[in-house]
Amino acid sequence: MATTAMPSAAAYEATVTAPVNIAVIKYWGKRDESLILPTNSSLSATLSQDILHSKTTARADPNFTGADTLWLNGTPEPMSASKRLANVVNALRAKRAALEASDSLLPKMSKWIVHVVSENNFPTAAGLASSASGFAALVFALANLYQLPEAKDGEAGAGRSTLSALARLGSGSACRSLFGGFVAWEMGTHADGRDSVAVPVAPASHWTDLEALVLVVHDGRKGVSSTSGMQTTVQTSALAQERFKSVVPQRMFDMKQAILRKDFDQFAETTMMDSNQFHAICLDTFPPIFYLNDVSRAIIQLVTDFNATPVAGYTGKYKVAYTYDAGPNAVLYLPRQFVRPVLALIQHYFPAPTDVPAADYFADPYKVGVNYPAPSSTNVAELAKTKLTPHAPGAIKRILHAKIGDGPRVVYAGPATGAGETGLMGKDGTPAKK
Amino acid sequence: MATTAMPSAAAYEATVTAPVNIAVIKYWGKRDESLILPTNSSLSATLSQDILHSKTTARADPNFTGADTLWLNGTPEPMSASKRLANVVNALRAKRAALEASDSLLPKMSKWIVHVVSENNFPTAAGLASSASGFAALVFALANLYQLPEAKDGEAGAGRSTLSALARLGSGSACRSLFGGFVAWEMGTHADGRDSVAVPVAPASHWTDLEALVLVVHDGRKGVSSTSGMQTTVQTSALAQERFKSVVPQRMFDMKQAILRKDFDQFAETTMMDSNQFHAICLDTFPPIFYLNDVSRAIIQLVTDFNATPVAGYTGKYKVAYTYDAGPNAVLYLPRQFVRPVLALIQHYFPAPTDVPAADYFADPYKVGVNYPAPSSTNVAELAKTKLTPHAPGAIKRILHAKIGDGPRVVYAGPATGAGETGLMGKDGTPAKK
Description:
Two copies of one chain form a homodimer. Chain A is α+β, with helices and mostly antiparallel strands and 434 residues long. Chain A is built from ten helices and 17 strands.
């Protein structure tokens, strides 16, 4: 277990944040369970870190004794307890060791015990997968702690892709959180996974009109874990191979074109069709896997009906696109001009829970919701011709508003101060008191 | 409109009943909309007619004037109002005309107006598709009215398959209701559809241990019609072609083997996987089509958990199989020994609605439910290890118990008496008073 000492003068630490990414071409299926090599390429947008990120402080101290330890949201665990966690730390430590071997003046950090404190600034109750941003933050923190050249390479450099492959060892989709903007995870062909890495498609600055709404859907049941779910799909779905072999390669091409051209119609259609197909192969799995519930279905209906209702002066085929990961929550991608109308529709058909303060219901760092008028039912009826009827309050528990954002950020990297001011770790090498 | 006269001495009539069939390999997709030729073969079991059938009386009378008319559940409509209905009647009339042309002594029934009265003995509230049994009954009634040789051929003869092709013109799956037992609809290859017919796989007497429970699920919304739904699937689903081309041919083979060997494990697995895949390609359709709701999903979970729970002395892998058509209702196929345990589970996890008499909730002509003890929660917990919790009363509205049954039956065929005793038509050529 962890020691509780003051940081030694030799100690180093790094604190970083890493973003959440939401795939528009879905990853579902591994061709190598241990190296986490996927059966198909995937593509995501990185969400802004203002209200959604993982923050991680890593410290290496020659005076630490015991085992490498991670405090995740306050709970300590030896890193060896998780094979994936151990794989990631060992891979980064090996890179540090190689550096030290080539330059004898470097501190022998690779020999020192590491302490890591990690937190998500979004509640786990939000139902968002935190493993992607969490493993991206871990890899980026250790890479900065160890002063690896890959960490200095920036989002345009190949070093970042190298780090993405290490994040992939922790959680497949984590590799995509090493970049901002629009990010492809190319499946690669090599058995050792060296070409199964994330690569940037376009930075966040490329398409600033695109925004996102995360709709957290109430769900009573615990879904199948994605690790075991995708194993069963690969083993039992007769349709999954067709998706891997034929459908996704074409969609990766289409999606990259859509992003490069900022063609929202192509982006939206491919996003929605790929979300549908991911859930279709889950249903073609035996026993079938269901992540969408009746509220998820109703949101799809509302989006479909809103898209089918003309808006004066708008010639696009789509105004908003839905996508669903391995759970009932919807993420909507949409041009900025439709954020307010869509919020009005959501507010009308999925009223806020009655037992939650309004500020907790709608997390809106960009203030689009400030003074946002409660829509009259007439206005809403004009917005979308739908047969949907309003749900009981609380069917959607929470709404988060995000933009497309940048990749991991270094908050601090250098000698350990233990001040707990920029990082999450106190002088004693455990989580800082708040 | 219909005339209201006494039947003339020359009038003829026929009254028949036809069964419901529930597919275990699903039909979804047409390669020819007008001839109703499918994109894949399908296979069904015919349910017993004791509580589920359509009954039809057809009369041809030289004194009828006006238009061919159908009374469906009491409401008259000229048959020309429905293209499909007109196609079916015209096809049968043409066969009669050909007979008359070859034998000048035959009454010229093909020149006479036809009145048809048809009823389903199951409430439309049951949510079961009535078009299959309805069109099968219509074709069989007219074939008997017209004394076509195909009508005399019995279930083993090729004439019945010829009639099935005419029922297909009304509603694709209706062709399978021309036979009892286990029935394949072979998709055929000819452009004119002459080889797209139903053929018997095995009669009901072949596998008498197999029974069915129909679970009618409450659903607030109206689903997409199957006609427009399957068009959209063929046009937009990237996975549907793989199903048509590769998956279904293998499953047709597997299913026939399962039935011929009375191999319930193979039957159950193929049935469940094919139901799942049908709904998967609906979800891969754009916009997506959902027929399963949260209650349907919960039934699948319960079946999956019950199958996974060992029963002393039973070595089979499966004890019950679910299948879902284009709606939320489940049909469970199961060996007789599991009817009572499954009823106990359903009764526990989906309690009867509180506003419906028990006899209306559970239609059980075979009396398996008589004195069936309300299970204790301990017993139920032993039956199936599940995390499911009981639903509110009425999530399942109605349960019907059926066996595998025979094909259409002739109630009467001959000169019109108009007595309304064996048929549905009164002396005046309209529905008999009850």
